[in-house]
Amino acid sequence: MSVAQRSRPVVPALAVLAHYLTGYRRTWRAGIFSSFLLPTLTVVGFGLGVGAYVDQGVDGVPYLDWIVPGLLASTAVQVAIAESTWPVFSNFQWTRTYFAQSSAPLRVGDIIAGHLGFVLFRALTASVAFLLVTALFGALASPWAVLTLPVVALLCLAVAAPTFAYAAVVSSDSWLAMLFRFAIIPMTLFAGVFFPVESLPAALRPLAYATPLWHAVDLCRAATLGVPPQSSAVGHLLYLAAWAAVGWLLAVRLFRRRLVV
User: Are the beta carbons of 190 and 146 closer than 8 angstroms?
Assistant: First the structure.
């Protein structure tokens, strides 16, 4: 057995995750503050502010209760993408952390899995905070709302894994800003978060249905309201899993191209 094999961690991805958690120990206080402040302002601004003008609700549901699951899913996406763009690009271009990790007894898959694990941790902690805040506002109509957490976890993998691949190949961080401007913001606006997709022109609805966010919003809304989803729950989960799997394969291939000589 070689020296590298003897020194290899039992679960290498956990060693990578521990690296990010160690750094997070210095910044978690600010993260906890924003995790509670932002959902509070969002619920007050959209759910109560805008909701006051939607006196009929949506499909017979109060607007606050209707919008909360969409905001939960979109907030998780924002956190996942934020942790998957500049941090990944930085680890290649600026701090070159990935190159140092690849020099250790770690495989490309270990490096990606450990970093994705941290992204998942950040998104889930933000989602738990969001659920706690919205529960205080009485916006969770069903105890099944706890099922939004595994849905959010799968959603985060579905958007973070392809973003890892994207951030691994772009030549400038300007491309990361373009990702937010031309993909993430439009997806957030038109994937059923703030209004039903059926309100869109018929020609645009397939684009909304193609986004991973819409599938998670439908599942989260069904869970928080205690009603069946508009579409097949199994179909939603398989679609999100397909995004995560394809994103993983692309990320591994493109990371290996950069890291393995």
Answer: no
Quote the CA–CA distance of 51 and 70 in Å, as a whole number: 14
18-73 per-position pLDDT tens digit: 999 999 988 887 776 666 677 777 777 877 777 777 767 788 888 889 999 999 99
**pLDDT tens across 167-189, in order?**
999 999 999 999 999 999 999 99
Decide: 153 and 124 in contact? Cβ < 8 Å.
Answer: yes
Tokens for 92, please give them: 């290649």
d(CA 144, CA 136): 16
pTM of the model: 0.92
Q: What would the pLDDT profile of 82-127 be if each residue is shown by its tens digit?
A: 999 999 999 999 999 999 999 988 999 999 999 999 999 999 999 9
Q: In the chain, which residue ranges form alpha helices assigned H by DSSP? A: 3-7, 12-24, 28-42, 63-84, 86-93, 97-103, 108-136, 148-169, 174-179, 185-190, 205-210, 212-225, 233-259
Locate 89 and state its tokens: 């690009």
Cβ–Cβ under 8 Å, residues 99 and 56: no
Reading the block at residue 226, the tokens are: 């205690």
Q: DSSP string covering 130-182, please?
A: HHHHHHHTT----GGGGGHHHHHHHHHHHHHHHHHHHHHH-SSTHHHHHHIII
Closest to 31 in 3D by CA, of 73, 83, 88:
83
